[in-house]
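User: Can you recover a sequence for this backbone? Please restate the input before giving your answer.

Assistant: Of course. Working from this structure:
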């Protein structure tokens, strides 16, 4: 797996039910523009506000609709037995990968985190992508990532949503150097280029829901050694990633940006998240107009 992976928003109707038609439309759009992978039940997809049954429904629906990209399913929970259940379900429906963040709410030491992931790896066969997002969950140290990667072949890579070039550097130098097939992805749009320069494999980035052309052009230009063009699109991604600073949550930022660009996905978040108001929406519109110009 490589390239531009989209952590998918979950579209909702005004009554908070899942908007299946909008989901179908968005998945069709992302595949037509050529993203390399689609990740359902992600942080951006508000997985903590979904029931286990809804997460399975979305995983199944996504598997039905994603036909031309890598297909990843989130299986994060603070309940290890639920992680195993969701991972087995993803395996049974034919997902390509599961993505598992560490347990949240309860602080855990390295041995507990190792046990959490090793148990899932021993009870399932599907490739696992570790997901380090320390602002939301227990953090995965580089030595722990290395231990898991070297002991379990099914632990296939990592998504690092961490604002640190050094963390990505260390995973690449300490883990990928010893296990060449271990995939390293940034979770932040503004870190895509430096991740590629360091030897990483791509990114799993939420702004690709509404502006995937920027990520795809950067990735293509870099691989074709058109570095001036890659720099240009990296600067655009750096600017557009400020959308997160304008809103109260990832979900609000992305759904307001999607509204501004004319997507049919409604600006609805499930409680306890709330959509930001008109003032934030106008700031996001202005940011997109500045970065995307006539493409807006």
């Amino acid at each position: 797996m490589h390239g531009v992976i989209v952590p998918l928003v979950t579209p909702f109707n005004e009554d908070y039910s899942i908007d299946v038609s909008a989901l179908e439309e968005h998945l069709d759009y992302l595949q037509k523009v050529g993203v390399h992978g689609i990740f359902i039940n992600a942080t951006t997809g508000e997985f903590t506000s979904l029931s286990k049954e809804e997460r399975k429904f979305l995983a199944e629906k996504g598997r039905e609709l994603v036909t031309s990209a890598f297909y990843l399913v989130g299986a994060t929970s603070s309940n290890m037995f639920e992680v195993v259940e969701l991972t087995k379900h993803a395996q049974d429906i034919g997902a390509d990968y599961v993505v598992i963040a560490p347990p949240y709410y309860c602080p855990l030491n390295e041995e507990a985190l190792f046990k959490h992931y090793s148990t899932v790896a021993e009870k399932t066969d599907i490739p696992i992508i570790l997901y380090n997002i320390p602002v939301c969950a227990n953090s995965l140290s580089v030595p722990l990532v290395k231990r898991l990667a070297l002991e379990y072949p099914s632990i296939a890579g990592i998504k690092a949503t961490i604002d640190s070039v050094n963390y990505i550097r260390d995973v690449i130098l300490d883990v990928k150097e010893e296990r060449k097939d271990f995939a390293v992805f940034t979770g932040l749009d503004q870190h895509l280029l430096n991740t590629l320069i360091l030897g990483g494999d791509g990114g799993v980035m939420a702004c690709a829901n509404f502006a995937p052309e920027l990520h795809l052009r950067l990735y293509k230009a870099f691989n074709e050694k058109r570095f001036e063009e890659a720099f240009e699109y990296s600067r655009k991604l750096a600017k557009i990633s400020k959308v997160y600073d304008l809103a109260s949550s990832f979900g609000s930022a992305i759904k307001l940006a999607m509204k501004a660009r004319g997507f049919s996905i409604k600006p609805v978040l499930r409680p306890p998240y709330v959509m930001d108001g008109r003032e934030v929406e106008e700031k996001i519109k202005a940011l997109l107009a500045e970065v995307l110009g006539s493409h807006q």
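That completes the design. The CA atoms of residues 121 and 292 lie 42 Å apart.
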